[in-house]
Amino acid sequence: MPYPDHALDVPEQTAVAAAAASAPSVLNSQPWLFSTGPQGVEVHADPRRAPTATASARRDVYLSCGAALFTVRAALARLDRAVRVSVLPEAGDPLLVARVTVTGDGGDPEAAALYRWVGDRRTNRHPFRPEPVPAGVLALLGGAAEHEGATLRRLDAEPEYQRVLTLIRRASLAEDDAVREDGADRLTGVPPAVPVENLGPVPRRDGTDGGAVRDLAPDLALPGRGTAAFEPHPELAVLETAEDGPASWVAAGQALQRLLLEATGHGIAASFANQPLEDAELREEVSSSAAHFGHPQMVLRMGYPLTRPPAAPRRPQHEVLRRVGR
Ligand SMILES: Cc1cc2nc3c(=O)[nH]c(=O)nc-3n(C[C@H](O)[C@H](O)[C@H](O)COP(=O)(O)O)c2cc1C
């Protein structure tokens, strides 16, 4: 039977999978597999690639797959396809994160517009300019998160800002000790992981590090990596969901990518300080004194970048793409 006009041809399937694979993922582990066919795309989780060092590995896999899922939606919208998205569609298959079915022509124009920024988005662990992110842009980013069922909680009240910063610092100290023991694994354990060019400079731990930059390789003397003072008071925000569990993690991942693409379009870069979320007790504390109670999924540092890091490497497509006939 001939396929309808809106069926995806092979180059279109390849392009959608390539875009999806450029999504952010925990420690660049890329814990996903894509099945593509004329009728759409499935996003599967590949937990074998989850970093083993943290207690949040399962959550981080779903967050990463959620970011890839939003990218699939944006890429299909750019191809002018309307889609139906089913998150966790098979109760017996928790690794099938989502099924995206092409239903006709006419892509969502907002998602299509965001596709433009997919190739430009980077996690940026370099210092940012000291200027604040404009309130209007932050409102747009909040709207992007809400569109996907999550909340971007700005840490705009100083006591709350300092409270979360203290939790980040506490987690960083514990992590620095752990990474000192298995640092090489962290960098090379899940190839291609995070290469030195993407680590950013070593933050000066002298009060000028802004406190919220995560050094993924403390104490490893890596050639080509300098030190730097960071902006003193970065914009910090917590991406939260009302519930906690795989469906919420996928929603948060979609919200993350949606708001990061929106931010990229406004010249804003982000890095993440998820270290307190990787410890069950500290994660509780990140949410516990907030005026409203959400489940924290990501801690974001945002600002105007001074440096543009290279695109972090991705696994070869044949490892992550499976073509199916339907
Ligand atoms: C769930 C999740 C957690 C992450 N946690 C951190 C983090 O705590 N610190 C950090 O610097 N980057 C973090 N990242 C960013 C990844 O390291 C980054 O996406 C990956 O290295 C690929 O680089 P890219 O975003 O520039 O494409 C996280 C990403 C995801 C999706």
Automatic annotation (TrEMBL):
Coiled coil: none annotated. Signal peptide: none annotated. SUPFAM superfamilies: FMN-dependent nitroreductase-like. It comes from the Bacteria. Residues 184-210 are annotated as: Disordered. This is Nitroreductase. The lineage of its organism: Bacteria, Bacillati, Actinomycetota, Actinomycetes, Kitasatosporales.
